[in-house]
Amino acid sequence: MSREQHCAQTYQAGLAAERSVARQYLRQGYEFRDHRWRGKGGEIDIVFADGDTVVFVEVKKSATFDRAVQSLSRRQIGRILQTGAEYIGHLPRGSLTPVRFDVALVDARGAVQVLENALAA
Predict the structure, then answer these.
(1) pLDDT value, residue 7
(2) Residue (of 16, 26, 38) closest to 110 by Cα position
(3) Are 63 and 108 in contact (CB under 8 A)?
(4) Please, which pLDDT band fits residue 73 given cuts at 50, 70 and 90?
(5) In a domain, 121, yes or no
(6) pTM for the full model?
(7) CB neighbours (10 Å) of residue 73?
(8) Which residues form a coiled coil (predicted)?
């Protein structure tokens, strides 16, 4: 498999994982807001609303849940937090907007495990 084929396959697997996670949140009554929202410093995979709370979801896919969570670096966490702050800066309530940062893990079988408020300060 060429590098281009591998990259395309990885990209498609990531999209499939994000769709699976989005379906789970939607089944639980969350309101979809954005997919792959890009700010100056990074990207948020999925954004939902849970009542007044904005929920930022980082999706990590790997062979196991443990490997997926280990792939989240401190640098990436910093970018996610910074990008979330930029996102709410565009909302009417700005920094007064209640937020939550979840991490959704997807294993090789497609099972989803959500770690709510995983990036709380």
Answers:
(1) 67
(2) 16
(3) yes
(4) very high
(5) no
(6) 0.91
(7) 9
(8) none
Mean pLDDT of 79-87: 96
* Token pair listed for 49: 């609303």
**Residue 120, in any domain of the structure:** no
The H-assigned helical ranges of the chain are: 3-27, 65-70, 74-89
CATH of the domain at 67: 3.40.1350.10
Q: 83-121 b/e with 16+ CB inside 10 Å = b?
A: bbebbbeeeeeeeebebbbbbbbbbeeeebeebeebbee
pLDDT range class, residue 26, cuts 50, 70, 90:
very high
Q: In what order do the strands lie in the sheet with 31-38?
A: 31-38, 43-50, 53-61, 99-106, 112-115
| Alpha-carbon 16 to chain mean position | 13
d(C-alpha 88, C-alpha 111), whole Å? 30
- Which residue has tokens 């196991």? 64
